Amino acid sequence: MLLIATGLVVALMAWMALAVHWYDTAPVIRVVAGGRSGYSYRNLTGGYRLFQLSYQIEAIRLLLLMVPCLLGVLLGVPLVAGELADHTNRLAWTQGISRTRWLATKWLMLGVPLVALTGVLLAFSDWWTTRISGVTFGSVVGLIDSGLGAFGNSHIQPVTYSVTGVVPIAYTVFALALGCAFGALIRRIPWAVVFTVLVYGLALFTMVTTVRPVLAPQTFVSLTATNGFSAVLERGTPPWDIGFEARFVPGYVPAGGSPSAATIIARCENLPVGYANCLTLHHVQFGEVFQLASHYWVLQWREAVIYLIAALLLLVVSWWAVRRWRA
Hints:
The chain is mainly alpha-helical and 327 residues long. It folds into 2 domains: 49-216 and 294-324, no CATH class; 219-293, no CATH class. The protein has helices at 2-24, 53-86, 88-93, 99-131, 149-153, 158-161, 167-186, 189-211, 261-269, 275-281, 296-324; strands at residues 28-31, 39-42, 219-222, 240-248, 284-291. It has a 3-stranded antiparallel beta sheet with strand order 3-5-4. The chain has a two-stranded antiparallel sheet with strand order 1-2. Helix 1 (2-24) runs parallel beside helix 4, helix 2 (53-86) runs antiparallel to helix 4 and helix 4 runs antiparallel to helix 7.
């Protein structure tokens, strides 16, 4: 299975290298408006629709997000459940090898090369992301390959964040432990695969939408701020825009039983006039919440630690399940 996984990763990296070559050699079209300096873009829409470079780039990004889960399913689920199905565990246990040592040995023999393989893919992914930065799904419509280029260049954006840094390695270890734990608990490979995919997807969704935004101090920018979005730009690199939020003015402490800031916002919106005055009267401000680009590595390491702790706990679950097996 490890050889199959290695072959799939090598094939993916070859596709990524070809995508970079095709991107570099795509025709550049220059647009001049009214005789003045205009802009230029790479035409990524040549060829058949499904084979257009913009579609290929989005497909590669999706695969990079899926690789940890695929490795967890391909290697983690059969790690223990496959032994039970083939009854090869009984042979090992009758040779004087304890179940703890048996499980630890299997984990190390698979986990170490898998982490090394993920590290190679991660280094390649970081290079690929830098070369293809700015190409987004918006390119599919056709003409501008860097309309959101600044966002593409910012590694803190979710589309880039999850395939660079150190978190992909933590994702892979977590997926491997998750697949192993479900295989040990359920003892049926098909059902273990289903639960591994579902729980991994739920964990990733919860991390992106709930946990990751608060792993580092957020920056709030009121919509009435004169500098607006430029206030959170760092060397021209945009932050991660988490979304809109209603907050009380810093230093103001609402009385007990008072409505929330979001409730006050809704009430003020229903007033025919005086929306801004209503917010001021209730000491409420409305704006956008950001994670600055400089928080990239803080978020990466903290998120990786969370996943590694979860993987350790899942390994304990696997050990407990194996200990309960009848020889």
